[in-house]
Amino acid sequence: MTDTLSGRLTRRLPLAALSLSLFGLLSACATTSALPPNTPGAITDETRMMYAEVQDGDITIPAIEDKYLTEEKKRQVVDYWSDEKPGTIIVDPGARWLYQVQDGNTAMRYSVAVGAEGLAFSGNANIAVKRHWPNWTPTANMIRRDPETYKPLANGLPGGLENPLGARALYLYKGGRDTLYRIHGTPSPWTVGHATSSGCIRMFNQDSLYLYDNTPKGTKVVVLPKERSGEGTVPPSDMLSMTGDLADSGA
After folding, report:
1. pLDDT in tens, 198-215
2. Active-site positions?
3. Cα–Cα distances in Å, from 91 out to 13, 95, 132, 236?
4. Residue 74 and residue 197: Cα distance in Å, rounded?
5. CATH top class, domain 4-36+44-233
6. I need a surface site. Which of 49, 75, 117, 126 has the fewest CB within 10 A?
Protein backbone atom coordinates (compact mmCIF):
# COMPACT_ATOMS: atom_id res chain seq x y z
CA MET A 1 0.00 0.00 0.00
CA THR A 2 1.50 3.29 -1.05
CA ASP A 3 -1.27 5.87 -0.67
CA THR A 4 -1.66 8.47 2.06
CA LEU A 5 -4.18 6.41 4.02
CA SER A 6 -1.78 3.50 4.12
CA GLY A 7 0.97 5.74 5.41
CA ARG A 8 -1.27 7.04 8.18
CA LEU A 9 -2.20 3.48 9.15
CA THR A 10 1.41 2.44 9.37
CA ARG A 11 2.29 5.39 11.56
CA ARG A 12 -0.74 5.22 13.85
CA LEU A 13 -1.22 1.49 14.36
CA PRO A 14 1.24 -1.01 15.83
CA LEU A 15 2.27 -3.61 13.25
CA ALA A 16 0.44 -6.43 15.02
CA ALA A 17 -2.77 -4.41 15.26
CA LEU A 18 -2.60 -3.41 11.61
CA SER A 19 -2.03 -7.00 10.54
CA LEU A 20 -5.01 -8.12 12.59
CA SER A 21 -7.14 -5.37 11.11
CA LEU A 22 -6.26 -6.29 7.57
CA PHE A 23 -6.70 -10.03 7.86
CA GLY A 24 -9.00 -10.54 10.80
CA LEU A 25 -11.61 -8.27 12.26
CA LEU A 26 -11.96 -5.78 9.43
CA SER A 27 -15.57 -6.62 8.67
CA ALA A 28 -18.21 -9.29 8.76
CA CYS A 29 -16.59 -10.54 5.59
CA ALA A 30 -13.07 -10.80 7.00
CA THR A 31 -11.49 -14.11 7.89
CA THR A 32 -10.24 -14.78 11.40
CA SER A 33 -9.06 -18.37 11.34
CA ALA A 34 -5.86 -19.93 10.07
CA LEU A 35 -6.95 -23.19 8.52
CA PRO A 36 -4.65 -25.96 7.33
CA PRO A 37 -4.31 -26.40 3.57
CA ASN A 38 -6.03 -29.23 1.76
CA THR A 39 -4.22 -32.51 1.38
CA PRO A 40 -2.48 -32.15 -1.98
CA GLY A 41 -4.07 -34.21 -4.71
CA ALA A 42 -3.66 -34.72 -8.43
CA ILE A 43 -4.29 -31.32 -10.01
CA THR A 44 -4.61 -31.22 -13.78
CA ASP A 45 -2.80 -28.65 -15.88
CA GLU A 46 -6.22 -27.28 -16.89
CA THR A 47 -7.13 -26.64 -13.26
CA ARG A 48 -3.75 -25.10 -12.57
CA MET A 49 -4.25 -22.72 -15.50
CA MET A 50 -7.71 -21.73 -14.23
CA TYR A 51 -6.12 -20.52 -11.02
CA ALA A 52 -2.88 -19.15 -12.44
CA GLU A 53 -1.55 -15.66 -11.77
CA VAL A 54 -3.79 -12.97 -13.27
CA GLN A 55 -2.88 -9.41 -14.20
CA ASP A 56 -5.91 -7.28 -13.30
CA GLY A 57 -5.15 -3.70 -14.25
CA ASP A 58 -2.13 -2.68 -12.22
CA ILE A 59 -2.64 -5.46 -9.65
CA THR A 60 -1.19 -8.95 -10.04
CA ILE A 61 -3.41 -11.59 -8.45
CA PRO A 62 -1.22 -14.46 -7.22
CA ALA A 63 -1.78 -18.00 -8.47
CA ILE A 64 -3.63 -20.33 -6.11
CA GLU A 65 -1.17 -22.89 -4.82
CA ASP A 66 -1.85 -26.55 -5.61
CA LYS A 67 -2.16 -27.37 -1.92
CA TYR A 68 -5.34 -25.26 -1.72
CA LEU A 69 -6.94 -26.87 -4.79
CA THR A 70 -8.66 -30.13 -5.60
CA GLU A 71 -10.47 -31.21 -8.74
CA GLU A 72 -13.71 -31.18 -6.77
CA LYS A 73 -13.17 -27.60 -5.57
CA LYS A 74 -12.41 -26.10 -8.97
CA ARG A 75 -15.02 -24.03 -10.81
CA GLN A 76 -16.99 -26.47 -12.95
CA VAL A 77 -20.33 -27.28 -14.56
CA VAL A 78 -22.34 -29.86 -12.61
CA ASP A 79 -25.78 -31.43 -12.81
CA TYR A 80 -28.28 -29.22 -10.98
CA TRP A 81 -32.05 -29.18 -10.96
CA SER A 82 -33.78 -25.89 -10.28
CA ASP A 83 -36.92 -24.03 -11.35
CA GLU A 84 -34.97 -20.77 -11.20
CA LYS A 85 -34.12 -19.17 -14.53
CA PRO A 86 -30.57 -19.37 -15.92
CA GLY A 87 -28.24 -16.82 -14.38
CA THR A 88 -29.78 -17.08 -10.92
CA ILE A 89 -27.26 -17.58 -8.12
CA ILE A 90 -28.09 -20.17 -5.47
CA VAL A 91 -25.89 -20.17 -2.39
CA ASP A 92 -25.81 -23.31 -0.25
CA PRO A 93 -23.88 -22.17 2.86
CA GLY A 94 -24.34 -25.50 4.62
CA ALA A 95 -22.62 -27.40 1.81
CA ARG A 96 -20.20 -24.54 1.06
CA TRP A 97 -21.11 -24.36 -2.62
CA LEU A 98 -22.39 -21.55 -4.81
CA TYR A 99 -24.30 -22.42 -7.98
CA GLN A 100 -25.15 -20.25 -10.96
CA VAL A 101 -28.03 -21.88 -12.80
CA GLN A 102 -27.55 -22.76 -16.46
CA ASP A 103 -29.76 -24.36 -19.11
CA GLY A 104 -30.29 -28.11 -19.30
CA ASN A 105 -30.40 -28.94 -15.58
CA THR A 106 -26.85 -27.77 -15.02
CA ALA A 107 -25.10 -25.05 -13.03
CA MET A 108 -21.65 -23.57 -12.72
CA ARG A 109 -20.49 -24.56 -9.23
CA TYR A 110 -18.00 -22.66 -7.09
CA SER A 111 -16.38 -23.68 -3.83
CA VAL A 112 -16.85 -21.05 -1.12
CA ALA A 113 -15.88 -20.32 2.45
CA VAL A 114 -18.66 -19.53 4.90
CA GLY A 115 -18.47 -17.90 8.31
CA ALA A 116 -21.09 -17.21 10.95
CA GLU A 117 -22.35 -14.16 9.06
CA GLY A 118 -22.78 -16.31 5.97
CA LEU A 119 -25.35 -18.35 7.88
CA ALA A 120 -27.21 -15.33 9.23
CA PHE A 121 -29.20 -14.58 6.08
CA SER A 122 -31.40 -16.84 3.98
CA GLY A 123 -34.06 -16.15 1.39
CA ASN A 124 -34.18 -14.15 -1.82
CA ALA A 125 -32.25 -11.02 -2.71
CA ASN A 126 -30.72 -9.40 -5.76
CA ILE A 127 -27.34 -8.06 -6.82
CA ALA A 128 -27.74 -4.27 -6.66
CA VAL A 129 -24.07 -3.28 -6.52
CA LYS A 130 -20.93 -4.73 -8.13
CA ARG A 131 -17.45 -3.52 -7.32
CA HIS A 132 -13.89 -4.02 -8.59
CA TRP A 133 -11.33 -4.14 -5.78
CA PRO A 134 -13.90 -2.78 -3.32
CA ASN A 135 -13.05 -0.48 -0.45
CA TRP A 136 -13.97 -1.52 3.03
CA THR A 137 -15.24 0.83 5.76
CA PRO A 138 -15.81 -0.11 9.42
CA THR A 139 -19.29 0.39 10.81
CA ALA A 140 -20.04 2.97 13.50
CA ASN A 141 -20.55 0.13 15.99
CA MET A 142 -17.10 -1.28 15.24
CA ILE A 143 -15.50 2.14 15.78
CA ARG A 144 -17.34 2.59 19.09
CA ARG A 145 -16.41 -0.90 20.24
CA ASP A 146 -12.71 -0.65 19.38
CA PRO A 147 -11.78 2.95 18.50
CA GLU A 148 -8.04 2.34 18.74
CA THR A 149 -8.15 -0.24 15.95
CA TYR A 150 -10.95 1.08 13.75
CA LYS A 151 -11.02 4.87 14.06
CA PRO A 152 -7.89 5.25 11.88
CA LEU A 153 -9.78 3.24 9.23
CA ALA A 154 -12.97 5.36 9.44
CA ASN A 155 -12.38 6.80 5.97
CA GLY A 156 -12.11 3.34 4.51
CA LEU A 157 -9.47 0.81 3.47
CA PRO A 158 -8.64 0.97 -0.25
CA GLY A 159 -9.11 -2.10 -2.39
CA GLY A 160 -6.06 -4.26 -2.96
CA LEU A 161 -4.45 -7.61 -2.33
CA GLU A 162 -4.66 -7.21 1.47
CA ASN A 163 -8.29 -6.09 1.52
CA PRO A 164 -10.54 -8.89 2.87
CA LEU A 165 -13.15 -8.31 0.14
CA GLY A 166 -10.73 -9.47 -2.53
CA ALA A 167 -10.75 -8.63 -6.24
CA ARG A 168 -14.51 -8.44 -6.80
CA ALA A 169 -17.63 -8.14 -4.66
CA LEU A 170 -21.34 -8.60 -5.29
CA TYR A 171 -23.63 -6.82 -2.81
CA LEU A 172 -27.00 -8.35 -1.95
CA TYR A 173 -30.01 -6.10 -1.45
CA LYS A 174 -33.54 -7.03 -0.42
CA GLY A 175 -36.46 -4.65 -0.73
CA GLY A 176 -34.05 -1.92 -1.76
CA ARG A 177 -31.98 -2.24 1.42
CA ASP A 178 -28.46 -3.56 1.84
CA THR A 179 -28.51 -6.95 3.56
CA LEU A 180 -24.78 -6.56 4.44
CA TYR A 181 -24.38 -9.96 2.78
CA ARG A 182 -21.54 -10.14 0.25
CA ILE A 183 -20.22 -12.62 -2.27
CA HIS A 184 -16.59 -11.73 -2.84
CA GLY A 185 -13.01 -12.81 -3.39
CA THR A 186 -10.53 -13.41 -0.62
CA PRO A 187 -6.81 -12.91 0.00
CA SER A 188 -6.90 -16.11 2.10
CA PRO A 189 -7.33 -19.01 -0.36
CA TRP A 190 -6.75 -21.61 2.37
CA THR A 191 -10.20 -20.80 3.79
CA VAL A 192 -12.13 -21.69 0.62
CA GLY A 193 -14.21 -24.81 1.04
CA HIS A 194 -14.20 -24.51 4.83
CA ALA A 195 -16.44 -23.18 7.57
CA THR A 196 -14.61 -20.34 9.27
CA SER A 197 -15.18 -18.29 12.40
CA SER A 198 -16.51 -15.25 10.57
CA GLY A 199 -17.30 -14.00 7.11
CA CYS A 200 -19.88 -13.82 4.35
CA ILE A 201 -19.42 -15.91 1.18
CA ARG A 202 -15.82 -15.93 -0.04
CA MET A 203 -14.25 -17.58 -3.06
CA PHE A 204 -10.90 -17.71 -4.81
CA ASN A 205 -10.11 -14.33 -6.37
CA GLN A 206 -9.92 -15.99 -9.81
CA ASP A 207 -13.45 -17.33 -9.33
CA SER A 208 -14.70 -13.94 -8.15
CA LEU A 209 -13.52 -12.45 -11.47
CA TYR A 210 -15.40 -15.10 -13.44
CA LEU A 211 -18.61 -14.80 -11.42
CA TYR A 212 -18.50 -11.00 -11.59
CA ASP A 213 -18.23 -11.03 -15.38
CA ASN A 214 -21.18 -13.42 -15.67
CA THR A 215 -23.50 -11.71 -13.19
CA PRO A 216 -25.31 -8.51 -14.24
CA LYS A 217 -26.87 -6.13 -11.75
CA GLY A 218 -30.37 -7.23 -10.81
CA THR A 219 -29.47 -10.93 -10.77
CA LYS A 220 -31.61 -12.91 -8.35
CA VAL A 221 -29.82 -14.65 -5.50
CA VAL A 222 -31.33 -17.43 -3.41
CA VAL A 223 -29.56 -18.25 -0.14
CA LEU A 224 -30.69 -21.65 1.14
CA PRO A 225 -31.38 -22.18 4.84
CA LYS A 226 -29.69 -25.06 6.61
CA GLU A 227 -32.69 -27.39 6.25
CA ARG A 228 -32.59 -27.02 2.44
CA SER A 229 -28.87 -27.70 2.06
CA GLY A 230 -28.20 -30.00 -0.88
CA GLU A 231 -31.34 -28.95 -2.71
CA GLY A 232 -30.98 -29.19 -6.47
CA THR A 233 -28.25 -31.81 -6.45
CA VAL A 234 -30.66 -34.74 -6.79
CA PRO A 235 -33.09 -35.20 -9.73
CA PRO A 236 -36.74 -34.47 -8.76
CA SER A 237 -37.72 -38.01 -9.72
CA ASP A 238 -35.22 -39.42 -7.23
CA MET A 239 -36.51 -37.07 -4.53
CA LEU A 240 -40.08 -38.24 -5.15
CA SER A 241 -38.93 -41.85 -4.95
CA MET A 242 -37.12 -41.20 -1.68
CA THR A 243 -40.20 -39.43 -0.25
CA GLY A 244 -42.37 -42.36 -1.24
CA ASP A 245 -40.00 -44.87 0.36
CA LEU A 246 -40.04 -42.89 3.60
CA ALA A 247 -43.84 -42.77 3.58
CA ASP A 248 -44.07 -46.54 2.97
CA SER A 249 -41.69 -47.22 5.83
CA GLY A 250 -43.73 -45.07 8.19
CA ALA A 251 -40.81 -42.71 8.80
Report:
1. 668 999 999 999 999 999
2. 184, 200
3. 37, 9, 21, 19
4. 23
5. mainly beta
6. 49
